[in-house]
Write a structure and sequence with these properties.
This protein is α/β, with parallel strands linked by helices. The chain folds into three domains: 177 residues, Rossmann fold, CATH 3.40.50.300; 73 residues, DNA polymerase, domain 1 (Orthogonal Bundle), CATH 1.10.150.300; 64 residues, Ubiquitin-like (UB roll), CATH 3.10.20. The protein is built from 14 helices and twelve strands. Belongs to the TRAFAC class OBG-HflX-like GTPase superfamily. OBG GTPase family. YchF/OLA1 subfamily.
Length: 368
C-alpha cells in the first residue's frame, strides 16, 4: 500500500502522535482516491519546493501531496500466536507499505510501562521478534506447499518456486534468529519470487523515538541506543515529543505554530519530520503542475514513464497521453520565471518513453 502503519507497544504514545498527525486533516475533496476510516489519517506532505514554486507562479490555490498513516493498535507480546488483537493486527500490518515504529524514550512515572521500565532496546526486540515470528509462520507455510508449485504445469509458477526455494530456507534461519527479512541481501528476481508472501519484516521501518520535552534538543541515552539498533538494520530514526506535538496541533494558525517552534528552539516539528520520512520510505517521487489557478504536488512511483505519471492526475491523461512539457523546479528557482526557463532552453517536450524525475514541473498534453 501507499501508506505507513504506526506500531509500538501500548503506552508509548502512538495515539497521541496519531491524533496530532490527523488534527489538520487534508481536505478530502482534493484527494478522491483516499480511504476515510477512523484509524487512517491523510496528511499533507511538507515540501519546500511547492512553496517556492507557488511564490513564483502566484496561483489561486496550492495543493500539497498527501500520504496516509494507519494507526495499528494491538501489537503486544504474543501477537504472532494470535493472542489479543494479534490476528487482526497482523492482517493490517501486512497491507501497509512501510512501518513507523514508535518507541518510548520518555520517563514519566505516572504512565505505566508494559514491561515495568523504560527500555527501548528490549521494547524494540519484543516487537521485532513478534513480527519475525509472524513472518516465520508465513514462510513455513509456503515451504509446506512448495512441492505443489514445483510440480506445476505452468512454467512461470514452477520457475518462481524454484528460485524461491533456497531463499525460503535462508529466510527461516534469519527469522529464527529474530532478524528481519530485509536484513537478507536479495536481488530483484529473488525479491519478486517471494513478494506474494507479503512479509512484514521485508518492509522498511522508521524508528520514532518519543522523548521528553527536555530531551528534544539533545539526544538522550535511550535515543542513542535506538540509533545503534537502527544503524545495524539500515533503518532511519527520528525524535519527536508527543506531548509537544499535541500542543502544537492544538494551535490554530500556521503563524502561531511557527512562533511556538521558534520559541522552543526547533526548526521543524517532529510530525513534519515523521511525515517526510514516512513518505520517503514508500519509494515515491513528486512532480508538480504549475498554473495560475493551481500549483499542485503529485505523487508517482519511482521509475514511472510520463503516461503513467500523468495517470496519477486522471486515468484519461494516461490513455490519451500525447506529450509532456517539462522542466525541473531547480531551473525555475535558478532562473526565476517560466519564461526565463524557456529562454534558457530548459523547457523540453518529452514523449511516452520519458522517465519522470523527482521535482519535475510538467504540463501534459492529451487527447480526450
Ligand atoms: P499508546 O498506547 O501507544 O497509543 O499511547 P498514548 O498515546 O495513549 O500515550 C500513553 C500516555 O503517555 C498518555 O497518557 C499520553 O498523554 C502520554 N504521553 C504520550 N506522549 C508523551 C510524551 O512525549 N511525554 C510524556 N510525558 N507523556 C506522553
Amino acid at each position: 500500500g501507499m501508506n505507513c502503519g504506526i506500531v509500538g507497544l501500548p503506552n508509548v504514545g502512538k495515539s497521541t502522535i496519531f491524533s496530532a498527525l490527523t488534527s489538520a486533516p487534508a481536505e478530502a475533496a482534493n484527494y478522491p482516491f483516499c480511504t476515510i476510516e477512523p484509524n487512517v489519517g491523510i496528511v499533507h506532505v511538507p515540501d519546500e519546493r511547492l512553496e517556492k514554486i507557488a511564490k513564483i507562479v502566484g496561483p489561486e490555490k496550492v495543493i500539497p501531496a498527501v500520504t496516509e498513516f494507519v494507526d495499528i493498535a494491538g501489537l503486544v507480546k504474543g501477537a504472532s500466536k494470535g493472542e489479543g488483537l494479534g490476528n487482526q493486527f497482523l492482517g493490517h500490518i501486512r497491507q501497509v507499505g512501510a512501518i513507523c515504529h514508535v518507541v518510548r524514550c520518555f520517563e514519566d512515572n505516572d504512565i505505566v510501562h508494559v514491561a515495568g521500565k523504560v527500555d527501548p532496546v528490549s521494547d524494540i526486540e519484543v516487537i521485532n521478534i513478534e513480527l519475525a515470528l509472524a513472518d516465520l509462520e508465513s514462510v513455513t507455510k509456503r515451504i509446506q506447499t512448495l512441492d505443489k508449485y514445483l510440480k506445476s504445469q505452468d512454467k512461470k509458477v514452477q520457475q518462481k518456486a524454484l528460485i524461491s526455494k533456497p531463499i525460503l530456507e535462508r529466510l527461516v534461519k534469519t527469522l529464527e534468529a529474530g532478524l528481519p527479512a530485509r536484513s537478507l541481501p536479495l536481488d530483484a528476481d529473488e525479491i519478486d519470487a517471494i513478494s506474494d508472501i507479503h512479509l512484514i519484516t521485508m518492509k522498511k521501518m522508521l524508528y520514532v523515538c518519543n522523548v521528553d520535552e527536555a530531551n528534544l534538543l539533545e539526544e538522550n541515552e535511550h535515543v542513542k541506543k535506538v540509533k545503534e539498533i537502527a544503524a545495524k538494520e539500515g533503518s532511519q530514526v527520528i525524535t519527536i515529543c508527543g506531548k509537544i506535538e499535541s500542543e502544537i496541533a492544538a494551535l490554530e494558525s500556521k503563524e502561531e505554530k511557527e512562533a511556538f517552534l521558534k520559541d522552543i528552539g526547533i526548526e521543524e516539528s517532529g510530525l513534519s519530520k515523521m511525515i517526510r520520512a514516512g513518505y520517503n520510505m514508500l519509494d515515491m517521487y513528486t512532480y508538480f503542475t504549475a498554473g495560475v489557478k493551481e500549483v499542485r504536488a503529485w505523487t508517482f512511483p519511482k521509475g514511472a514513464k510520463a503516461p503513467q505519471a500523468a495517470g496519477v492526475i486522471h486515468s484519461d491523461f494516461e490513455r490519451g497521453f500525447i506529450k509532456a512539457e517539462v522542466y525541473h523546479c531547480n531551473d525555475l528557482f535558478a532562473l526565476g520565471s517560466e519564461s526565463k526557463v524557456k529562454e534558457a532552453g530548459k523547457f523540453r517536450m518529452e514523449g511516452k518513453e520519458y522517465e519522470v524525475k523527482d521535482g519535475d514541473v510538467i504540463h501534459f498534453k492529451f487527447n480526450v
